[in-house]
Each structure stands twice: as structure tokens, then as C-alpha cells.
Write a structure and sequence with these properties.
Length: about 300
């Protein structure tokens, strides 16, 4: 059985979320071997970035705060990692890309084409992007322009390549941003990136992270992600991919009922190497018991009346 979601085909609708575990080809192959239907790379940009100083990731009771600071070796170096995954598995590889403006995004997308990614995910939502980048994902005009520019740049690729947009929850109106992505030609939106956060060491009185503030992920953010996916599903005609705090099969079902056509998992992989396999197995079992298939679950919460 395969699933077609947002222009790609997967053995199951779970993907590794963009992040540290997508930094090397070997790590991405490991997630696929452990049950991920596909993988999203760490966000890749136009030039090498060395990231923020440590501590750059801290574990709290209900999640992580990271301030990685977009570390990546540039698209030129990263092509080899994508090619490595493509040589080892048939599962789709989605290239997460970032830049300061639309010309950066176009340069990175075109530059990665030779490694044959199955889709692009435009990261318009990193809480650590600098300058113009910091508010890229909260300005509808930037979202629309960057989306349209990348779509136009890759339209003549050897095969049609879908372009997704990853959205930030750090905005007043996520529907407005999702609509701008859709108007720009997005094939899907992905929600959500991390939520701006901070932790302070009470003994020194200093913020714990090297960068002082960071982005919160893990179970703490799931209810926020559910609400964002719910709102986007209601507002848009394109698929919504749900990410944020999924670690159990119940979370995947809830995310799909909110409107997600597929889910991404990041933080929970640190607790359970086989989280993709376990989440999907539980979700499949539940759907079978209920007599529902995937298409009936997606967006179910929008149609069910309260009992
Ligand atoms: O590298 C990071 O600091 C980072 C990125 Br690009 C992102 O999209 N989200 C996040 O929480 N951290």
C-alpha cells in the first residue's frame, strides 16, 4: 500500500520532520529503515553556517528548546547527502531550504535539483533567521513572493517537483499566511515550526541557551499545532501536513482529524528510535477497529457534530 500526499508517494504517511536528524544522509536512511515513510532534511541555505554556540538544545519536562542557528554546510556540500539517501532507499526525500530573500531560495532550490529531491519544503519559519529573514514567515507578501519564485524556478525540472511551505505558529493569523502560500502556488503547507521560547538558570540568573532564546518543540506544543492545522484545513484548498508534538499513535490520529494529510515527527525520535513504525502501526490498528480509512479520518473533526 502507498499513500499519495502533496505530490509525493509514501509507504506510510509519516515523515522525519526537518531538524538535526536530517543533517546527514546516514541519519536519514536510519529513520527510513526504522519506519519513516519519508524524510525532510535539515534546512539548507546558500552558504555554510556554523550555528549558535552551546548549549544549543536543552531538554525540558515536556519538550526541547533549540537554538541551533541554521547550521548547514550549504547546498553545494549537501547535494551528496540527498544523493546518498536516494541511492539507499526508495522513500521520498524532501529538501528543506532557507534563505534571506526569494533569490536565495531560488538559488538553493535550483542548486539542489541535481540531487533529485522529491519535494522542497520552504522554511519560512525558523525562529533564528536573522534580519530580513526573521519576519519572512509572518509577512504574507514575502510568503507569496518567495513561494511563486521557487515554483517558477523549478517548473522546468526533469519531473514536476512539489513545493511545500513550512509555517510559523509565531503569528497572529496563520490562516492569512497559509492563504498567501496557496496564492503563491504551494502544493502543501506544513504546520508548525517551533514556538519562540526561553529558559533561565535560576542560579546564575542567565538564559540557559547560548543564543538566549530558542524554539520549543515536543509534546508541550501539540495543542498549538492541532489548532493551527485545524485553522489551515478550514481556510485552504491544498493539503496540510501536521507537525508538532507527535509521539504516540493517538497524536497522529488527532492531527489527522484536525486536517493533516500526513504527519512529521522530530523530537520524539530522540526517545524512541522506532517512533514512526509504532505511531503508524497504532494508527492503522485504530482505523481498522473503527472501520475508517485514512481519507475518512482527515478533517473528521470539522464535520462531526458534538454528541
Ligand atoms: O536551526 C535552527 O535553529 C532551527 C530551524 Br532552521 C528551524 O526551522 N526551527 C528551529 O526550531 N530551529
Amino acid at each position: 500500500m502507498t499513500y499519495s500526499v502533496a505530490g509525493i508517494t509514501l509507504p506510510n504517511p509519516t515523515l522525519l520532520a526537518a531538524g538535526v536528524l536530517g543533517t546527514t544522509g546516514a541519519s536519514m536512511v536510519r529513520q527510513i529503515n526504522n519506519g519513516a515513510g519519508g524524510v525532510v532534511t535539515k534546512s539548507i541555505g546558500p552558504t555554510p553556517v556554523f550555528g549558535h554556540s552551546n548549549p544549543s538544545m536543552i531538554a525540558l519536562e515536556h519538550g526541547f528548546i533549540n537554538a541551533m542557528g541554521l547550521p548547514n554546510p550549504s547546498f553545494e556540500e549537501f547535494r551528496g547527502e540527498i544523493s546518498f539517501v536516494k541511492s539507499k532507499t526508495k522513500a521520498p526525500v524532501v529538501a528543506s531550504i532557507f534563505g534571506g530573500d526569494s533569490s536565495d531560495f531560488v538559488k538553493v532550490a535550483k542548486g539542489l535539483l541535481p540531487s533529485m529531491p522529491d519535494a522542497f519544503e520552504l522554511n519560512l519559519s525558523c525562529p533564528h533567521a536573522k534580519g530580513y529573514g526573521a519576519d519572512i514567515g509572518s509577512r504574507p507578501e514575502h510568503v507569496r513572493e518567495i513561494m511563486a519564485a521557487v515554483k517558477n524556478a523549478v517548473k522546468d525540472a526533469a519531473q514536476p517537483i512539489p513545493v511545500w511551505v513550512k509555517l510559523t505558529p509565531n503569528v497572529a493569523n496563520i490562516k492569512e499566511i497559509g492563504l498567501a502560500a496557496q496564492e503563491g502556488g504551494a502544493d502543501a503547507v506544513v504546520a508548525i515550526n517551533t514556538i519562540r521560547a526561553m529558559a533561565i538558570d535560576i542560579h546564575s540568573g542567565w538564559p540557559v541557551l547560548g543564543n538566549r532564546s530558542g524554539g520549543l518543540s515536543g509534546p508541550a506544543i501539540k495543542p498549538v499545532a492541532i489548532k493551527c492545522v485545524y485553522d489551515l484545513y478550514e481556510a485552504l484548498d491544498i493539503p496540510v501536513i501536521g507537525v508538532g508534538g507527535i509521539s504516540k499513535w493517538e497524536d497522529m490520529i488527532e492531527m489527522m482529524m484536525a486536517g493533516a494529510s500526513a504527519v512529521q515527527i522530530g523530537s520524539a525520535v530522540y526517545e524512541n528510535d522506532f517512533v514512526f513504525r509504532d505511531v503508524w502501526a497504532g494508527a492503522e490498528r485504530f482505523m481498522k477497529e473503527k472501520g475508517w480509512d485514512v481519507s475518512e479520518i482527515i478533517g473528521l473533526s470539522h464535520t462531526k457534530k458534538p454528541a
